[in-house]
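pipeline: protein-struct stage 2 | run 1193 | Probable Fe(2+)-trafficking protein
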Amino acid sequence: MSRVIYCHYLKKEADGLDFHLYPGELGKRIFNEISKQAWQEWLKKQTMLINENKFNMMNPEHRKKIETEMVKFLFEGEDVVIDGYKPQN
């Protein structure tokens, strides 16, 4: 059975994540406030960010940038802006 949470991103009740996907306090917040659907939306953005910026996830600076964008996207209602990326119509 799914956990139902109030998703901060979707602004409605939705299926919660099955387990913690991120460490620390931020991970707890994501687990408690972000739905599966919102997390999938973020993963698409994260993949684009990593690819477009050629981020190396072994680089702590790059990981910090990804985390900052994740918080802005999931909790502050800001879309991810990728330099040079134009959505295809």
